């Protein structure tokens, strides 16, 4: 049976259990003189039976479906004759795709070696067995648990409390999913990063100034020795982020100040949503704009001044990224400025200061920590931004501070290393995960600091 | 006395300077807003200016003699004959007749005006109307991409015109006669991707986006609300709860590409799920949008006044009943608006989907959650990177479609908020 039909069946069984539990509780209540003699409402008895039924079944179904392919693949590979067992993961995946092609009929068995055809047959039979086992296990667990739930319906049973505690646990596990996600990120990235550092030394990665991740596909290939120094990538990332901040911080901050201190309600009501629209535009649109409009414009403009500019410049990517970040800076600063108590403002104005003096000398210093926190968050966003740089910055790792030259960033390299053909144990693909780890750590650090600052500052006036 | 006057003078002067400063400061603010808004205007103008031609297609309309002998076809209901018949020749002959000064020697040059797809169109027409065989019919087919580019961008230096000068003259004359004409590009909305710009459409990407969004919505909405309820109503004040909270706030600020790495390592490499399918895309986007939904749902729950809770508790409802029967319905509008905004973000997201392989060139419109598919923003990315300039206008058109979806989602959120907002 297919997993989806099985899922549907489990849900139908749960419905049946609900109906049976409901009916049984009512019929048990009848001789006692009505449902008010039950500990809980019939609805809860039904819900309890349904939950009893569905939870174990789903757990079995999900865990089986999640791991069955891996287990079957390992079994199939293990059953191959000694001399055909692949030594690397890349070979294993090649072999597996060959085997599954034979199994699915895309490749006629006559075209491959005997053991592979046998493995394909084995794969097919294992799959069928696994499907059958899964189906029977899930159905029997569901029915058995549902039956138990049904038997244990009784007028003294506090079904409501049970249902509610199950629900509470369910809610809890949904909240805990956040932790699971974080752990998933850390483990998936850390594991591959660890394997990367088994092949490439720390020193080369952190202090190397040369990045050219093309590695040899075959051992005897010439001139394909990869170099994995991340310094040019990080300088490129920092250069583009710096350009973005140069655009976003003054524009965002000044517009936030104007909107919160000077603008009347109507102007604010129109301008604020328009500014926020900038944040809602997908990054791929900004990338398109940067690559096809801004970058050629900058190159032409520079050429007309007699300056040499690359067609993919850091300036184009950074500038457009700055535009994207404006609403981010402005709405965060707006919040912080509005959180400064009115008494400070009134006091300063009463002393005869003009509005701009009040702003510059009183409110801005008071809001500064919060604004700094917001800017740090914006920096983290600029560092992690992908699509704009993938489309508008270059691919060549270039150690330069000239904004008119092409640079590459960490995120660009992650995307280019992981799209297209790849084998999963080469330094080249593992490098992407190492870069991802660095990116995650860098942005995590910025976020934690920024969130701390923002929170701490907000508490001061509350 | 003179001393006092000079003091007043100083004050007046400094006041003047201070007011000037005040004005300047105000002007800076206005300037900043003007810069931000003009960036928005330029962006939209650029996209629309580049993309409106993407909504136009160039067609050729002519009297085509559906001569059985010429097509090697004597029974249009026979599938095998239809497969082998020659549908180029009748179109070619009809077009030669229309082109002034062209004869049989110019066959190749004339054929270059016809879209390679035109013969398939003609076959489909004959399949639908087998009785037309032997008659002459007025038929409209797509023009060649080069003709399309020439018709739309004749004066534009950015586009290289691939037609020869003679062909250009022909197209001009055909345009005057009305044989070559432009109309609304319905192909864009009825086709999947294609290597040929004139036949490329966004239908596959739209369906892929809808499937992906469906998975994301079905998973992230209930999970997000459940998590928000737990954190807001049931969670004890302890270290572990704090840890969950910090985690959620951090996840909201983690770069989206990291979620792509997670999806690649866990869903594809560990669980062995297939690459580039809406199901996996939906899973990754779920993890990405969950923090947004949780944070906004918590705010919505927080805004329900305690008096409602106390009233329900007062008549003997359990904590869970208070939450499910009273708090949740009242907080629902706020949760909905938050979720719509989260979904809009997910709809525009590209980077994590690149890593799970949704960049493949896919012609077919996906039909299920486990079919290879692409989504709208990735389609934009693919077309924007294409060396053929004719794809750029398609990419801009796809952006307009994407923005239409996003703006209507955001408008829906605003409308919902206005409509369902309650003041306590």
In short:
The complex is a heterodimer of chains A (462) and B (424). With 462 residues, chain A is an all-alpha fold. Helix content of chain A is 76%, strand content 1%.
C-alpha end-to-end distance of chain A? 59 Å
Hey, which two chains have the biggest interface?
Answer: A-B, 92 and 89 residues
Strand order of the largest sheet of chain A: 1-2
Largest sheet of chain B: 3 strands, antiparallel
Written overview of the protein:
The complex is a heterodimer of chains A (462) and B (424). Chain A is mostly helical and 462 residues long. Chain A is built from 15 helices and two strands. Chain A has helices spanning 3-32, 42-79, 89-104, 114-151, 159-199, 202-207, 231-262, 265-280, 283-304, 314-339, 342-350, 355-384, 387-392, 410-418, 427-459; strands at 211-212, 227-228. In chain A, helix 9 crosses helix 10 and helix 14 packs across helix 15. Chain A starts with a helix and ends with a helix. Chain B has 424 residues and is mainly alpha-helical. Chain B is built from 18 helices and three strands. Chain B has helices at 2-51, 68-71, 79-84, 88-98, 107-111, 118-128, 145-153, 165-177, 187-190, 203-234, 239-253, 256-270, 278-302, 306-314, 319-348, 351-355, 376-384, 390-420; strands at residues 56-65, 136-142, 180-184. In chain B, strands 2-1-3 form a three-stranded antiparallel β-sheet. At the A-B interface, helix 2, helix 5, helix 7, helix 8 and helix 9 of A face helix 1, helix 10, helix 11, helix 12 and helix 13 of B.
Topology:
The complex is a heterodimer of chains A (about 450) and B (about 425).
Chain A: H1 3-32, H2 42-79, H3 89-104, H4 114-151, H5 159-199, H6 202-207, E1 211-212, E2 227-228, H7 231-262, H8 265-280, H9 283-304, H10 314-339, H11 342-350, H12 355-384, H13 387-392, H14 410-418, H15 427-459
Antiparallel strand pairs in A: 1-2
Chain B: H1 2-51, E1 56-65, H2 68-71, H3 79-84, H4 88-98, H5 107-111, H6 118-128, E2 136-142, H7 145-153, H8 165-177, E3 180-184, H9 187-190, H10 203-234, H11 239-253, H12 256-270, H13 278-302, H14 306-314, H15 319-348, H16 351-355, H17 376-384, H18 390-420
Antiparallel strand pairs in B: 1-2, 1-3
């Amino acid at each position: 049976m297919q997993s989806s039909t099985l899922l549907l069946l489990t849900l139908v069984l749960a419905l049946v259990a609900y109906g049976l539990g409901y009916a049984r509780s009512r019929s048990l209540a009848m001789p006692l003189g009505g449902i008010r003699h039950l500990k809980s409402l019939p609805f809860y008895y039904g819900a309890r039976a349904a939950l009893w039924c569905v939870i174990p079944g789903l757990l079995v179904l999900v865990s089986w479906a999640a791991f069955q392919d891996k287990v079957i693949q390992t079994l199939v590979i293990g059953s191959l004759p000694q001399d055909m067992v692949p030594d690397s993961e890349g070979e294993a995946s090649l072999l597996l795709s060959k085997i599954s092609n034979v199994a699915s009929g895309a490749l006629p068995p006559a075209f491959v070696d005997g053991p592979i055809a046998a493995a394909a047959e084995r794969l097919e039979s294992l799959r069928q067995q696994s499907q059958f086992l899964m189906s029977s296990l899930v159905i029997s667990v569901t029915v058995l648990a549902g039956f138990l739930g049904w038997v244990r319906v009784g007028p003294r049973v506090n079904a409501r409390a049970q249902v509610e505690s199950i629900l509470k646990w369910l809610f809890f596990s949904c909240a805990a999913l956040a932790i699971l996600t974080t752990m998933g990120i850390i483990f998936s990235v850390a594991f591959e990063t660890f394997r990367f550092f088994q092949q490439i030394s720390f020193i080369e990665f952190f202090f190397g100034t040369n990045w050219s991740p093309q590695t040899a596909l075959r051992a005897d290939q010439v001139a394909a020795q990869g170099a994995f120094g991340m310094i040019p990538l990080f300088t490129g990332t920092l250069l583009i982020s710096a350009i973005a901040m140069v655009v976003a911080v003054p524009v965002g901050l000044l517009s936030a100040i104007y909107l919160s201190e000077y603008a009347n309600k109507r102007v604010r009501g129109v301008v604020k949503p328009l500014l926020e629209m900038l944040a809602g535009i997908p990054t791929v649109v900004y990338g398109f704009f940067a690559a096809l409009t801004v970058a050629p414009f900058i190159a032409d403009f520079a050429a007309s001044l007699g300056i040499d500019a690359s067609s993919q410049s850091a300036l184009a990517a950074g500038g457009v990224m700055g535009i994207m970040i404006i609403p981010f800076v402005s709405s965060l600063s707006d919040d912080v400025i509005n959180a400064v108590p009115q008494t400070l403002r009134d006091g300063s104005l009463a002393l005869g200061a003009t509005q701009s003096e009040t702003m510059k000398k009183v409110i801005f210093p008071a809001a500064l920590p919060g604004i700094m926190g917001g800017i740090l968050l914006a920096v983290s966003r600029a560092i992690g931004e992908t699509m704009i740089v993938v489309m508008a910055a270059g691919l060549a790792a270039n150690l330069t501070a000239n904004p008119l030259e092409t640079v590459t960033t960490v995120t660009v390299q992650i995307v280019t290393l992981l799209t297209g053909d790849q084998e999963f144990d080469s330094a080249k693909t593992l490098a992407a995960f190492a870069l991802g780890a660095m990116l995650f750590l860098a942005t995590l650090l910025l976020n934690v600091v920024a969130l701390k600052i923002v929170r701490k500052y907000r508490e001061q006036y509350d | 006395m003179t001393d006092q006057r000079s003091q007043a003078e100083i004050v007046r002067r400094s006041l003047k300077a201070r007011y000037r400063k005040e004005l300047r400061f105000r002007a800076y603010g206005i300037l900043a807003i003007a810069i931000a808004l003009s960036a928005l205007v330029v962006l939209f103008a650029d996209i629309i200016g580049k993309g409106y031609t993407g909504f136009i297609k160039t067609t050729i309309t002519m009297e085509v003699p559906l001569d059985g002998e010429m097509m090697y076809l004597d029974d249009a209901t026979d599938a095998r004959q239809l497969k082998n018949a020659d549908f180029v020749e009748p179109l070619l002959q009809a077009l030669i007749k229309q082109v002034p000064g062209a004869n049989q020697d110019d066959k190749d040059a004339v054929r270059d005006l016809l879209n390679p797809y035109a013969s398939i169109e003609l076959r489909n027409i004959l399949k639908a109307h087998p009785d037309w065989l032997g008659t002459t019919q007025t038929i409209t087919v797509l023009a060649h991409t080069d003709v399309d580019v020439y018709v739309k961008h004749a004066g534009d230096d950015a586009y290289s015109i691939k037609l020869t000068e003679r062909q250009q003259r022909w197209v001009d004359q055909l345009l005057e006669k009305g044989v070559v004409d432009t109309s609304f590009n319905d192909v864009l909305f009825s086709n999947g991707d294609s290597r040929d710009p004139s036949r490329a459409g966004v239908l596959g990407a739209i369906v892929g986006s809808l499937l992906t969004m469906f998975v994301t919505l079905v998973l992230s909405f209930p999970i997000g609300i459940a998590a928000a309820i737990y954190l807001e109503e049931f969670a004890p004040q302890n270290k572990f709860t704090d840890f969950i909270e910090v985690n959620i706030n951090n996840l909201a600020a983690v770069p989206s590409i990291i979620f792509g790495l997670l999806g690649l390592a866990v869903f594809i490499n560990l669980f062995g799920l297939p690459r580039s399918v809406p199901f996996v895309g939906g899973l990754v986007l779920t993890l990405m949008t969950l923090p947004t939904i949780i944070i906004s749902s918590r705010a919505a729950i927080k805004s329900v006044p305690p008096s409602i809770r106390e009233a329900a508790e007062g008549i003997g409802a359990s904590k869970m009943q208070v939450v499910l029967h009273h708090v949740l319905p009242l907080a629902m509008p706020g949760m909905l608006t938050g979720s719509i905004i989260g979904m809009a973000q997910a709809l525009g997201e590209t980077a994590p989907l690149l890593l799970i392989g949704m960049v493949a060139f896919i012609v077919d419109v996906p039909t299920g959650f486990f079919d290879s598919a692409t989504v709208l923003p990735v389609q934009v990315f693919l077309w924007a990177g294409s060396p053929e300039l004719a794809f750029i206008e398609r990419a801009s058109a796809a952006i307009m479609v994407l923005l239409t979806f996003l703006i209507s989602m955001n408008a829906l959120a605003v409308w919902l908020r206005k409509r369902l907002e309650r003041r306590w």
